[in-house]
């Protein structure tokens, strides 16, 4: 069994999930894998650009952006680890291209816990967009912790559970 897998996307909800996920990893003495997934673009998927082959420089630009995003993610995680007192947690960062929920589910196939944030779209927009957290809850092979939108205190458990 691997440690805690935490899905992030740069949103405030994802940062709350990251903080809570690091606390979960610290509490259970396991490592954490922080995963950022982005949807494929027509260029990265190798689709033609206006009926012509896509420019070769585009893939280089996409890869450069991925490397930059990975560095920024690692830097932000280090800052949050320090703020949360979770420096003892061994963290691995992964950036992936693909459909978000399936990628997170694959990363968490043998995880202790999968932690994701909830954006709270709900209603009709939620139906149109699909809900990553909902798909994770329905299809994960491990426990899933969904940190709700607007949750201010994600670093501590309710008093009844904090024993």
Order of helices and strands: EHEHEHEHHE
Distance between the termini: 24 Å
Helix content: 40-55%
CATH topology heading = Rossmann fold
In CATH, what is the class? Alpha Beta
Describe what you observe in this structure.
The protein has 163 residues and is of the alpha/beta class. It has five helices and five strands, in the order βαβαβαβααβ. α1 packs across α2 (56-84). The longest helix has 29 residues, at 56-84.
Question: What is the fold's blueprint, element by element?
Answer:
Elements: E1 2-8, H1 12-28, E2 32-38, H2 56-84, E3 91-97, H3 100-107, E4 111-117, H4 123-129, H5 132-139, E5 144-147
Parallel strand pairs: 1-2, 1-4, 2-3, 4-5
Helix pairs in contact: 1-2, 3-5
Give a quick precis of the structure:
By secondary structure, the chain is of the alpha/beta class. The protein is 42% helix and 20% strand.
List keywords for this structure.
163 residues, globular, disordered C terminus, alpha/beta, 5-stranded parallel β-sheet, Rossmann fold, 5 helices
